[in-house]
Amino acid sequence: MRWDYSPQMPNALARWWAGVDAGDLRDRLTDVNDGIIALAGTGLGLAGAKISGATSFAVLVITTLMGAFAVFGVQLCEALSHREAQQSTVAREQRLLELTPDEEMAELTEWFERKGVTPETSKQVAQELWDADALSAQLEIEYGIRELTTQSDAWREAITAGLAFLVGATLPVLAMVMVPLPWRSESTIIAALASLVVTSVIIARRGYANATRTALRSLMIGGTALALGYLLGDWMM
């Protein structure tokens, strides 16, 4: 089922939403979920260990900042490695196009034939793509590379990943800090699980998946993680 957001959203917002890459959105909301689960689990672990006050607050702040930095660092390394792999692939394909152009053209033609296109049409399409941009055609057909990752892309992905974790982590931290002590654990659980439901529904709708099943999976995993956090804290103390 394809969701149509135009009746529910202003035109500008609907256009922005339609332009958001589903994969990028899923990755960033996954980082948000990581922040929610990590900090809510840590907070409940501290509650299970009967640790409160300034010590508990310091642990939460340190965990939030270090978690965001870790996500930023991992994403940056991954994006830069991906960029280097792309550059290596581009250099190799450029050499092949210079040294063995006939073989590269044959590979391009064969790819279309394997998809069920007739040999004559395959050769014509391959030739037109070759004439337009041989390197881009080879990169997309052979390696699925449609756009090359730049350094700014890598840094942007890393920064948004770290910020996404930070946003997710802030939600349970606020619940723990702003709610009176007797209700702190309950408010943390409610805030964390409610946030997971919201992010799961957004991910599901943008990816045209089943929102109910996606939310239930997130609740099951998140609830298990929170329970483990509390039990570990209680067991260690």
TrEMBL record:
Keyword set, alphabetical order: Membrane, Transmembrane, Transmembrane helix
GO terms of biological process kind: intracellular manganese ion homeostasis
Main location per the UniProt record: membrane
Membrane topology: Multi-pass membrane protein
Transmembrane segments annotated in the record for this chain: 54-74, 158-181, 187-204, 216-233
GO cellular component, one term: endomembrane system
UniProt-listed InterPro entries: Ccc1_fam (IPR008217)
Subcellular location: Endomembrane system
Keyword Ubl conjugation annotated: no
GO molecular function, one term: manganese ion transmembrane transporter activity
Pfam families assigned: VIT1
Domain of life: Bacteria
Matching PANTHER family: FE(2+)/MN(2+) TRANSPORTER PCL1
Protein's name according to its UniProt entry: VIT family protein
Organism in which the protein naturally occurs: Gordonia malaquae NBRC 108250
Organism placement in taxonomy: Bacteria, Bacillati, Actinomycetota, Actinomycetes, Mycobacteriales
